[in-house]
Amino acid sequence: MSVATSSKVFADASSALRGVVQDGQTLMCGGFGACGIPENLIDALRDSGVRNLTVVSNNAGLDGVGLGKLLQTRQIRKMISSYVGENKEFERQYLAGELELEFNPQGTLAERIRAGGAGIYGFYTKVGAGTLVAEGKETRIVDGETYVLEKGLVADVALIKAWKGDTEGNLIYRKTARNFNPNMATAARVTVAEVEQLVEPGSLDPDGIHTPGIFVQRIIQGASYTKLIEKLTLRKREERANAVVA
């Protein structure tokens, strides 16, 4: 399908990041594990050579997959994450003191990003009270319960992935790939999106749009997606008496 040019549309991931990413930035990267990650933008970020990045992401990818590629090239200085258990290189760098880590309970991380995008300084939560998560943070007792102050997160750049988008930056995500992407799109000064399908304005059902184009500054149509399955688990079919299997 021929798509009209727009000031937001870039030819490829490298050009979309040109002039946007710099050394020492805080960057958000959408997705969950290997699902819904901006594969093309991550590859372009690796090839750009920018370093000393603070990356906000649910996890650090897998070894050689997603953000795992940036760990291999030592471009990440600090991770703000909730789960990193599938990445051996992450573990090695952290235990060797080569990588900083700010751990967050997963729901807290999601809410910190949402709060940052909504212009909310912070919020109080009971999650993490009395644990290492609360160390160095303000706490408050309300109705006999201890709450921890968590601050909203904002970033210089957000790299997100959507299923379908139009040239004005309106986005639709698909199923699990929606994880973290919509919130991150609102919480960065510059949001760069990659989509599997890029269409003309008016082609998307307005009621189905998850991220309005006002939050997206640059967009590309990605290509050659791997869509890796992290763990394939198959349940054996239950045998039933007198069952007929077609």
List keywords for this structure.
246 residues, alpha/beta, Glutaconate Coenzyme A-transferase, 8-stranded mixed beta sheet, 3-stranded antiparallel beta sheet, 6 helices, 26% strand
CATH architecture: 3-Layer(aba) Sandwich
Q: Which homologous superfamily in CATH is the superfamily?
A: Glutaconate Coenzyme A-transferase
Main beta sheet = 8 strands, mixed
- Proportion of residues in helical segments: 10-25%
Query: Proportion of β residues?
Result: 25-35%
Backbone shape: globular
- Helix segment tally: 6
- Radius of gyration using CA atoms only: 20 Å
End-to-end CA span: 40 Å
CATH class: Alpha Beta
Low-confidence stretches: none
Order of helices and strands: HEHEHEHEHEEEEEHEE
Which class of secondary structure composition applies to the elements? alpha/beta
Q: What's the total count of β strands?
A: 11
Describe the structure concisely.
The chain is an alpha/beta fold and 246 residues long. Helix content is 19%, strand content 26%.
Description:
Helix content is 19%, strand content 26%. Strand 3, helix 4 and strand 4 form a beta-alpha-beta unit. The mean pLDDT is 93. Strands 1, 2, 3, 4, 8, 9, 10 and 11 form an 8-stranded mixed beta sheet that branches. A 3-stranded antiparallel beta sheet has the order 5-7-6. It has one domain: Glutaconate Coenzyme A-transferase (3-Layer(aba) Sandwich). With 246 residues, it is α/β, with parallel strands linked by helices. It has 6 helices and 11 strands.
